[in-house]
Design brief:
The chain has helices spanning 29-42, 45-58, 151-156, 196-199, 240-259; strands at residues 13-25, 62-70, 76-83, 114-125, 130-142, 162-170, 173-174, 180-181, 202-209, 214-221. With 267 residues, it is α+β, with helices and mostly antiparallel strands. The protein has one domain (13-259): S-adenosylmethionine decarboxylase, CATH 3.60.90. Strand 9 (202-209) and strand 10 (214-221) form a beta hairpin.
């Protein structure tokens, strides 16, 4: 697409939303607790901050402020305010920390142009032998920068059995002749911007409303390696009946999350 000559600021808002799910077989209460502890350690607010800070670099943005929190009993959240251009020190709000001191108490009270957020949700149920970890990520930008550049990095930063993504462009910007433009870059599918080697590992569903600038993709891992789904043991320690039971329950959980519906369990 030919570069637009704009009148004033580019007012288009581009938002990339992720739901990423990891599934694990946890038969005992001790295994469930151990899995939740493991997730909280692996994806605490410090690590999530590093992931989002790298996303900021990939999309060529600048960090204004970082607020983060680990929760009791589980879960974590991070919010990063970013700008398209670097903000001069004298213009920077005193509450911003540039990501340099993220241990102080801070209040997210303003938004320059853009933001990144992440929230984690580890959960389990004592009667279903399954624990899951969901992470929700939103990358919202205004101006020329687009979060679509960070797709591959985000996917590779997590263990992902199911990925659900939405990309939406909102608002409009005007060119020098006053004509409204509702998109400033070419996109027909989120999947066009994902590494083919990543896509090959997943079964996908793609829904695109080009005329509304709304794009939706679901991805479900298509390779089952049992040792990736059992906690604190290996498949060599399991009987064939146990392996079959785990395979059935894991596949059912992944399918239900992918299709967004409960599926009757038939033994």
């Amino acid at each position: 697409m030919e570069k637009l000559k704009l009148y004033g600021f580019n007012n288009l808002t581009k938002t990339l939303s992720f739901n990423i799910y990891d599934v694990c077989y946890t038969k005992t209460e001790d295994e469930r607790k151990a899995y939740i502890t493991y997730i909280d350690e692996q994806y605490n607010s410090e690590r999530l901050t590093r992931i989002l800070t790298e996303v900021t670099k990939i999309i060529d943005a600048n960090v204004l402020n970082i607020a983060k929190q680990d929760y009791d009993p589980q879960g974590a959240s991070v919010t990063i305010l970013i700008s398209e251009e670097k903000v001069d020190e004298e213009c920077l709000d005193a509450s911003c920390n540039n990501g340099l001191d993220i241990h102080k108490q801070s209040i997210v009270g303003h938004l320059d142009k853009s933001h990144l957020t992440v929230h984690t949700y580890p959960e389990s149920h004592p009667e279903q032998d399954i624990s899951t970890f969901r992470v929700d990520i939103d990358v919202s930008t205004c101006g020329k920068i687009s979060p679509i550049k960070a797709l591959n990095h985000l996917i590779q930063s997590f263990d992902s059995d199911v990925i659900i993504m939405d990309y939406r462009i909102r608002g409009f910007t005007r060119d020098v002749n006053g004509i409204k433009h509702y998109n400033d870059h070419e996109i027909s599918s989120i999947q066009d911007h994902i590494d083919p080697e990543i896509l090959d590992k997943y079964t996908t569903i793609d829904i695109n409303l080009d005329q509304s600038n709304i794009f939706h993709t679901k991805m479900m891992l298509n390779q089952f390696v049992i040792d990736n789904y059992i906690f604190n043991k290996t498949s060599a320690e399991l009987s064939q009946d146990e392996i079959h039971d785990i395979h059935t329950k894991i596949n059912l959980e992944i399918a239900e999350i992918f299709y967004g519906m409960n599926i009757p369990y038939m033994k």
